[in-house]
Amino acid sequence: MARKRSRVLVVDDEAAMREVLQARLERWGHEVAMASSVGEAARAMSRFDPDVVVSDLVLPDGTGLDLLRAHLRSNRRFVIVTAYGTVDTAVEAMKGGAAEFLTKPIDYGVLRQLLDDHDAALAEPEEEDDDDLLVGSVPAMREVKRQIAAVGPSMTSVMVVGESGTGKELVARAIHAASRRADGPFIAVNAAAVPASIAEGELLGYERGAFTGATQARAGLFEQASGGTLFLDEITEMSPELQPKLLRVLEERMVRRLGSEAEVPCDVRFIAATNRSPRRAVESGRLREDLYHRICVFRIDLPPLRNRSEDIPALARHLLTQLAKREGVPVPEIHPRAMRRLQHHRYPGNVRELRNLLERAMVLAHGDVIQRDDILIHDSGTHTPPVVTDGITLPSGVTAADAERILIVETLKRVGNNKAEAARRLGLDVKTIRNKLKLFET
After folding, report:
1. Distance of CA 212 to CAs 43, 116, 226, Å?
2. Cβ atoms of residues 36 and 120 within 8 Å
3. 288-302, pLDDT tens digit by residue?
4. Can you tell me the distance from the alpha carbon of 381 to that of 138, in angstroms, rounded to the nearest whole number?
5. By CB distance 3.0 to 4.6 Å, which of 41, 100, 170, 260 could disulfide with 133?
6. pTM of the predicted model, to two decimals?
7. Cβ(127)–Cβ(173) under 8 Å?
8. What Å distances lie between residue 302 and 163, 216, 265, 275, 397, CA to CA?
9. Angle CA 350–229–241, to nearest 5
């Protein structure tokens, strides 16, 4: 099945630039709409509902940053393009939530890679069914399956706790699928990925004129999820100012948009997730205790992959089947020595890391069997020699934790603190970069 291509809105007041971008994007398989101003783009947002917005910075009636502030949402990415590239403007764009800041002439290779990455994210729910996490038979996984089956049919709020990459969203989707709301919408949002300045409008919605740039009314995520499930990942990263408003919605089952006095019913099943200890988050002030008790009615703890090595053979074959289907190739076999290498790894990135290792191995493998040397794990030995990556030197004997910190921090310095670019260079996702940086600060 062909991968879904994102819808792209191009916003530029130069007709020639719009036409060039449209031709390239359509050649890459994207559906394209165009606008020449902030006003036109705002109207196109509701009509076309783009997944990605590629906007010039300077427009006749405003800026691309105005569009970003008014229309950013969790599953929409912005690319700000300008001939006047400055560090200050780029930083403002990144703080506002832009996925990328590009200068003219556009590097189309970078743009295409960014769109491909977004397409892959759009495709994940279709390519990875809810059984991805549930492959395995260790006692902890049998308990997770039992809990999903038990809580699924109810309206009970659920807290899913587990390390990054263990599959918290997949559990939330499995709960939704097991519920009486399975035919309703499943809306997922990462609290850590939504800038605090727009988070309230994103969750609760807003009326026209509620703030500068609110040129039309917009339903928030609670309204969008009506009749279904709202999944809020990284709940402990939500701003303290927004937490009491979330608590009020959950307790009263009513939503009031920004700029409105009217309240509308909120018919939503709520699931939250965190990669922190919820109790420690309460003790440190990251999470309100009353909100914690409201959402943690039923808790599901996901085991890290390092604690379920017996499941790795079945999980690896499952993931390889998915990857082979996506690429349209036969499913490769895994040599026993390669499988042992997989089972002996500690997996700080959990299932997501295993999937990345297998995808890389499929590219490297010669023939239809993945060999041990195709599994590129560099920390499996007791001694790690000095490593040089793009000029970043790791001293001999450095711990894995310190090596990780050095690589991430130094890579961010080299790309001007652009987390999206650093994530691409390191083979991580942006959420992992943000979480690691928070961990380094503690």
Report:
1. 16, 32, 27
2. no
3. 999 999 999 999 999
4. 27
5. 170
6. 0.59
7. no
8. 8, 41, 33, 10, 32
9. 80
